[in-house]
Specification:
This protein is of the alpha+beta class. Helix content is 32%, strand content 32%. Helix 4 crosses helix 5 and helix 4 packs across helix 7.
Length: 406
């Protein structure tokens, strides 16, 4: 089992994480190219350099803000964006679906924390730190790096929070910041090693979203060690240490991660008086706003009238917006909802070359075994039109190239 381990003895921030990931082996050109897929790519550029803290060398990443000509310091950038702005930036990009999901999950962690701390509704929160360009880059960059490494499991030590006070948009607040505490609820932490903030809300969101297990025992085979350099030079090394490691499979079946589990919601509406042509439009609207799945079942309603039950599977973050679409774009007068649990296969994405062009492939795993491979339909359809061939020919070429890889 391939493992990524975060050793947060000096905390974690977004820029330290990017430095550690590049130091660990993530191709910096790949990271920069993927970040350029965001529709804010003209607002920043990435600077990667070697640096040292207390005799430890590593990689330092700075996000240079083009419109302000200043280096990456969270407290200096006060661009305000809300959750919907950020969701639009990510969903409108050409990043792969796995990166989008991880990024949005991280932002949701911060949004919920900020909303609770400030007593506001989720979509009323205007982020200060996490809505700024540099923090968007930190979080989306973290998702890109995790997707690139394609590890089986993410682990972390207890998280050092630091101490003292820190200035933010609301004034002087204690360390750890209230949002950081909220994000890290239920996660083992330490504090007070230095009188300043060592873990930012961005760093906390990366940890809270991606880590499967917290332990200070490094019981694994270390394959590589890397360091992300922070912005301070203090009495302790201001670095984030990460390990790429392996854990030997054993006979303990409970130690194997076969599937992933998450919580989602089902929205339902019974409809018997709508022009059937409109359903295609409704499907497109729902999927464009983040629906995980949309489907219909034939039903018999009161007085024997035939109808359909429209069902939408979604995450909590876009539940309210999807409800509005159902209520405004269909003839229904109400929407039911219920929370549900789902078990999904672990997935990743890669691209293969065909004579007609590149196609994204979705791979699904049960434990360590790849059991399903599927080409992205929309890309196959586009290539069929572009090359004036049947879509079956595209699928045939995909299958041929997949067989070559085996």
């Amino acid at each position: 089992m391939k493992v990524l381990y975060y050793d947060c003895f000096s905390g974690i921030s977004g820029d330290m994480n990017l430095g550690a990931m590049i130091d660990l082996g993530v191709d910096k050109h790949y990271l920069i190219d993927e970040l350029s897929k965001l529709n804010i790519n003209e607002e920043f550029k990435i600077q990667v350099s070697r640096d040292m803290r207390k005799g430890i060398t590593g990689t330092k990443v700075d996000v240079i803000l083009e419109h302000e000509h200043q280096q990456h310091h969270h407290q200096h950038n006060h661009v305000h964006r809300n959750l919907k702005d950020i969701e639009n930036i990510i969903n409108s990009s050409s990043l792969n679906e796995n990166v989008k999901k991880i990024s949005l999950d991280m932002f949701m962690k911060v949004a919920k924390a900020e909303a609770k701390v400030h007593g506001k509704e989720l979509y009323e929160v205007h982020f200060h730190e996490v809505g700024a360009v540099d923090s968007i880059v930190d979080i989306v960059g973290a998702a890109i790096c995790l997707d690139y490494l394609n590890v089986d499991k993410v682990m972390a030590s207890s998280i050092e929070l630091g101490g003292g006070f820190v200035k933010c948009a609301h004034g002087v607040i204690p360390v750890p910041a209230p949002a950081t505490v909220e994000i890290l609820k239920g996660i083992p932490v330490k504090s007070g090693i230095v009188p300043f903030e060592t873990t930012t809300p961005t760093g906390a969101a990366i940890i809270a979203t991606t880590v499967n297990e917290f332990t200070d025992n490094k019981t694994f085979n270390i394959e590589k060690v890397a360091y992300g350099i922070g912005g301070r030079d203090t009495e302790i090394p201001n670095v984030l240490r990460v390990f790429l490691a392996s854990i030997e499979n054993n006979n303990d079946e409970t130690s194997k991660v076969y599937c992933e589990n998450d919580t989602c919601f089902v929205l339902e509406a019974n409809i018997d008086d709508m022009n059937p042509e409109i359903y295609d439009y409704v499907y497109e609207r729902l999927f464009s706003k983040g629906a995980l799945d949309v489907y219909m079942n034939s039903i018999v309603m009161k007085k024997g009238r035939p109808g359909v039950k429209l069902s939408v599977l979604c995450n909590e973050k876009n539940k309210e917006e999807l409800k509005k679409i159902i209520l405004s774009e269909t003839t229904t007068l109400g929407v039911r909802e219920h929370e549900t649990r789902r078990t999904i296969l672990r997935r990743d994405f890669d691209k293969i070359d065909t004579i007609y062009g590149k196609v994204t492939i979705k791979n699904a795993y049960l434990g360590d075994k790849e059991i399903k491979v599927k080409a992205e339909y929309e890309e196959c359809k586009e290539l069929a039109y572009k090359n004036n061939v049947s879509i079956n020919e595209i699928y045939k070429e995909v299958s041929k190239n997949l067989n070559k890889k085996k």
